[in-house]
Structures are given as structure tokens and as C-alpha cells.
Amino acid sequence: MERFGARLRSAMENLGPLCVGIDPHPQLLTAWGLSDDAAGLRKFCETCVSSMAGRVAVVKPQSAFFERHGAAGVSVLESTIRQLRDAGTLVLLDVKRGDIGSTAAAYADAYLDPTSPLASDAITASPYLGFGSLRPMIDRALDSGAGVFVLALTSNPEGAQVQRAVGPDKTTVAQAMINAIAQVNEGVAPMGDIGAVIGATVGRSALELSTVNGPLLAPGLGAQGGKVDDLVDVFGDATRLVLPSYSREILGRGPRVEDLRAAVTRTLDDVRRLL
């Protein structure tokens, strides 16, 4: 299979640099007039697939909102991933997994093995057991043509306690993660397969991103307070690598498919204006 970075670059160029989340939290299900159960979840996701498949570069289901419904919810997640991928849309599964050894390898089997019912084009991962703990996921991704987005500098205020901490070499933890990603991506064209997650609301972060050579997922836009214009401050001359991510800003326009599609179009226009 073609490398994830190459597939993502092509999708961003052809459809625009935009990731849309599928976050079926209870309040949103209610706002759409749906029941907070597996049946409501299924209807919600069918509407999202109809609105987004083939129209955006990446769709990002948040696994937790499916898992809360047990096996029936995970079944809906499997179906949603399959429908999106069958339509040619890249799926970034937001699971933020992070563990060591055989457990990390099991997560890789679950989400990055092409034969798994949850197989996705990429996943999010937490490196705070050490970047090296992610090697089973990274290695499986590189072997199977998938990607991993590593949390680096997130927009939640609590993250600063760890991510902005400075090590003995005077490098922040966030920058250390960026440096490690850059090593994995070195020399890969047109773009590496391992990305970083950097919140759109972190402001001028002083991160050195010039060597990362991988996609930079920017959540926190829209309902969380981030604006497209903020991306220049956060990412500087690395904006060509940025994949802006929206969820509630677009999902809140539902449940009509035509309204969701219109919201996607407006958001893409804003993003393209800057990036």
C-alpha cells in the first residue's frame, strides 16, 4: 500500500487541508433528535458519512463516544470506518492509546493491522510513557502503510504541566517529541507518516517545526475557541504541513445532510484562504 504520508498529502491537495471529527457525545445526539443509544449512534454516523465521505481529506471518529455504548457502539464504529474507507476517505481514529511492550503491540494489532475490523489509516497516540514506548505502533504503521499522530503540545490547559516541562538539556518535552518524530520521518517524500498533534489554541509555542517533515494535526478550532488565523502564530512557516481539525463547529449544523455539507464547504473556504 502507498505510504500514509503520500496518501494524506494527495488528499489534502485534492480536497483541501481539512479534518472533520465525528464526536457523537450525548448532547449532540439530543440536539439532533436522536436517542443516546446504539440506534441513535448509528443514525448519527450514517448522516456524517453521507455528508463527509469523499468531500474532506480526513474524518476523525472519537472512539470514546462509541465505546461508551459497549459492543454495539464499537460495532457502529467498525461500520463507520469501513464505509468511509470504502468511499476513499482517510480515517484517523482518535484513540490516544499509549502503553508499553506487548500491550502497545496489541493496540497496533487492533487499529493498524489491515485485517482488523477497526483498521484505520492512522491513529492518535500518547507518548508520555516515553516516545520509545510507541515503537510497536509506529513500526506497525510503517509496515502497513498507516500513520500515527503523536500528542506533542495539546490545547487543554492541564497539558502544559507535562508538555512544556524542560528537561536537563533545556528542551521542552513537546519539542523532544517533535524531534523524535522528525527522526522517524527524515528523508521521506512527499511527507512522513508520523504526525504531531499541536493545539490551535496554544499560541506562539516556540516549537521548532522546520524538520518535522510530517503532518501537524491542529485540533481546537471553532467551538473550542481557535481561529484559522491563529494557525500562522502557532505553526509559522510550517503551515503547509498543517491539517486543521473541526468537530462541533461543523456537527452543530446538523442533522440535515445539506446543512452539514454547507458547513464543510464554508470551513474549507476559510482554511484554503490561509493555507
Automatic annotation (TrEMBL):
It catalyses: orotidine 5'-phosphate + H(+) = UMP + CO2. Its EC number is 4.1.1.23. The active site is at K96. The keyword Lyase applies. It holds the Pfam family OMPdecase. Pathway: Pyrimidine metabolism; UMP biosynthesis via de novo pathway; UMP from orotate: step 2/2. It comes from the Bacteria. Gene3D superfamilies: Aldolase class I. GO terms for biological process: 'de novo' pyrimidine nucleobase biosynthetic process; 'de novo' UMP biosynthetic process. One of its GO terms (molecular function) is orotidine-5'-phosphate decarboxylase activity. Residues 17-263 form the Orotidine 5'-phosphate decarboxylase domain. It is an enzyme of class 4 (lyase). Keywords: Decarboxylase, Lyase, Pyrimidine biosynthesis. CDD domains: OMP_decarboxylase_like. Belongs to the OMP decarboxylase family. Type 2 subfamily. This is Orotidine 5'-phosphate decarboxylase. The lineage of its organism: Bacteria, Bacillati, Actinomycetota, Actinomycetes, Micromonosporales.
